[in-house]
Amino acid sequence: MSTVTIANNHADAEAAEKVEQHHAEMAGRLALLTFDVVRAARTDRAQAARQELLSWLRDDLVPHATAEEQTLYPAAAEIAEARLLVEAMLAEHVLIHRLVGDLEAATDPIEAAAVARALETLFGSHLAKENDQLIPTLVASPDYSVAEMLDGMHELLGGHEAPAAAASPAAGGHQCACGGHDEAGLPELDVRTIPHAIRHATIFGALDGLRPGTGLQLVADHDPLPLLAQLEQRAPGAFDVAYRESGPEAWRLELIRKG
Question: DSSP label at 253?
């Protein structure tokens, strides 16, 4: 995890880690979808990119927020030192719902891109407070079992998401049969500032959102060989990988989901 969390038992510590890993996956997926909305704003893909983001928001982010309000937040609100934090988190949920509504109502692609970027920024700040303040407070309390609270809650623990469906290439893709990829058009995922404990989960969240023929450019501060080995175990033969830069300051890799 990105912070040191003192839990009452091993089960709660594991549950807290799963929540944070799922948060990282969601952040990675949202970053990729937002990039596509912004990049497509002046193209004929603007509407399709907006709808893809909206589908993910409705199917994943909104149910996630609802599940938090039904489980984690009521428990945390009973802890005196977390009460104001919960009120602030609920207020941010209102803003998130409002931005989702604004994105649904947007008729101008540039406006949609601005709303998507604002939503991504707000969600990142929101997750940081949950990971670094709310969850540690809950697992440190002897009055609650986070593991029992979240048992079976796929909206909070992840593991229920379907892979991206096959379709015409979207983010980072093209429709030629040349076997190459437009490197300049690939979304860039710079993970150098992401805590190591959730770095892989963030990357996998982004990769899970790629459709066949699309990709991203990964930027890391070391050769990500352990990540590539884990990716191969997770999705054998699913990605083409090409190094574009190999240190010493940065490693840049192009990852393309095979068709």
Answer: E
